[in-house]
Amino acid sequence: MPEAPLTLPVLIRTIRSARTQAEERELVQRESAKIRGAFRGDEADTRASNLAKLLYIHILGYPAHFGQMESLKLMASHRFHEKRIGYLGAALLLDEKQDTHLLLTNSIKNDLLHPTAWVQGLALSTLGSLGSVAMFRDLAGEVEQLARVGQPSVRRKAVVCAVHVVRKVPDLIDVFTRLGEQLLTEQNTGILHGAVMLISEMCEQSPQALDRFCKFVPQLVGLLRNLVVAGYSPEHSISGISNPFLQVQILRLLRILGKDNEDASDAMNDSLAQVATNTETTRNVGNAILYETVLTIMGIRSTSGLRVLAINILGRFLLNKDRNIRYVALTSLQKLLQEENSAVQRHRATVLECLADPDPTVKRRALQLSLALVSGSNVRTTTKELLVFLETCAPELKSDCASGIFLAAEKFAPSKRWHIDTILQVLTMAGSYVRDDAVPNLIHLIGGAKELHGYAVQQLYKALTQDISQQPLVQVATWCIGEYGNLLLDGSCEEVEPTQADPEEMVSMLERVLQSHLSLPGTRAYALTALMKLGTRLQGSDINRIRSLVSIYCSCHDVELQQRAVEYNALFRKYDHLRASVLEKMPLVDKSGYTEEGSEKEQNGREAADAPRILEVAPAPSDVQQQDSGQVSDLLDLLGGPADPPPAQPSTGTPAVESFLDFLGDLKAPASAIARMVAYEQDGLLVEFSMDRPPLEPTLLLITATVSNRTPHDVAGFCLQVAVPKSFQVELLAPSGSTVPGQGGPPITQLIRVLNPKKLPLRMRLRLAYTLPSGALVQQIKEINSFPEAAWK
């Protein structure tokens, strides 16, 4: 005897009582087989109960596609409870991708014309959620008719359905325009709420509808004013505020109508001020209305006083105990900073207090806004607060905070000493989290402040004796000791009380850096060079100690350190008479702004641009030329060149320079430059490709990707990935950094090597990922098929 089918309550209890997933799966498969058999036997009496069980199985995640036709059959039933199950099944099992979806139109149309309001409501709800473009075009007239006349519940659902129709098929706006005008006089708040939603959607989709409904601004303002002054209504009031949902919708519609419209904005200014001053803020409902009021005030052409009032409302939100409200206020203030900087600056102290909030999201948003509020007038006080925050903040915030302080100090520093002190404090507290360009920028800053050389090297040496774990700080300190160590030895400093350093202690400190397991290879290279430069200012046993330290690294596993140590060791052994001149102080390098033309010159013609500088510096007398040629010969010997003296050159004015440039020309053939192209431009980021093809390797294409930021805020977490067809080979080298500095900062670069053995047209797919200043993670895929022929032919 076959087992009787289970009812829906029994099926739910049985599945819930299953002890294992396998047992549950077995129960579902057995019951699904029974339901499928019943559907195949066309048992009309049990169709509704079987479909209800199948929908429960579908909700659990098991396949239930075989119930689609049964849903259509139940929708056509004359019994309301079966029709309701059929519509529920259609809503769960059907979508626009299903062919069965096309069969819904007739059933829904018949039910829209049904005399019963309950059936009309089912049809309208299903049409709004499942309707396709073709279905909306066929049934728009019926929806519009039901929205005009009928029971209030049906009209309300018809108006909401009309919103979905307009959103999906903007061509049908003309069908509902007169309906929107008529419904604005409705007394039923549910229908009026739907009418405001419908008008908002039409105005967003059509400029003609926007112009048409602008004349209804006084009527909408009157509705809003009545809601604000209305008394308590048990049906529509929430927390003592009359119909807040309708107020929010009207405010949104006013924002749409008043954008870039002076007359409409003037008509609503007084009412917006009334809402902003009379709305109760003790409950979350009032805060929601006030926030929408702020968005409306800032979105239209409102008066300056009203805009200041809106900023002050957001300032009051910052004092709210609810963290969600504080987060919303911080986000809104950051968006309004460009337009109303002076008004937002008044709340700077409150924003800085939000840095102590225990919620990490509020803390991050407060940090972003605090950094954006830094200006020339408040840079000292704001930076002081940010440094206090940097010392105690979570590790995930240290990088953003340090980068922001760097940019603020570079832009608004009142003096070079304050600038250096601020950067040193950041390196001391969060050296491991700073940007990649922090070390060269600080070195350039110190090098350009000649009067502060003694002060900087004193402070850095003091910081180095206390902590060598912060690698950027150690790198800057060792560089300064190498360049300005004589100031430490002499104890000359005008800014603070000078302290004379012991030479043996300085060498010991650099030796400690070299031997520390915390030191990176780059840090050891800085320390090794500092030892060599310091050796030109020391004598006796200290020189021998430096020589022994250098010789240790002649067998180092790191190739860079080994090469550097071997060269330095050769200076000691063979060319001790050249050591002082080779290890002189570094000249100050010009730090020019990075522009498109300048970057092209820098990348494509760096060797050619350096030659004139050599020609300008090189003197012309013959005895100096002979001395220079002898030094060049010694240097070539040091690099492993021939020991014999070079043959005599014709006297053309600069023989040493010409022979040296000829030597460089033998090492590297000039590359053929290709026009630069824009690969990606969005969210303020600009990715440009500059391409070169080495003449000695015609199948190789070198692409330098330059990523610059045109927004004032840094873009963090930038990652570029590249894919090419199988006929190509691609190699992506490490980028110069992962944070793209704000406008005016140096871009990041990344080298891409593409091998094209068959010389086919180049196609490339880019995958870019980065985090916007707002915290949103962006992932984009871009395909490039427009490479110039010179890049692959």
UniProtKB/TrEMBL annotation:
Primary localization class, coarse: membrane
SMART domains hit by this protein: Alpha_adaptinC2 (SM00809)
Keyword line: Cytoplasmic vesicle, Golgi apparatus, Membrane, Protein transport, Transport
Keyword Lipid biosynthesis in annotation: no
Record localization: Cytoplasmic vesicle membrane; Endomembrane system; Golgi apparatus
Stretches assigned to the GAE domain: 672-788
Region of interest: Disordered: 619-654
Record's compositionally biased regions (Low complexity): 622-642
Any Gene Ontology CC annotation: AP-1 adaptor complex
Keyword Protein biosynthesis: no
Membrane disposition: Peripheral membrane protein
Swiss-Prot/TrEMBL GO biological process terms: intracellular protein transport; vesicle-mediated transport
Family designation: Belongs to the adaptor complexes large subunit family.
PANTHER family documented for this protein: ADAPTIN, ALPHA/GAMMA/EPSILON
Protein name: AP-1 complex subunit gamma
Organism per entry: Podarcis lilfordi (Lilford's wall lizard)
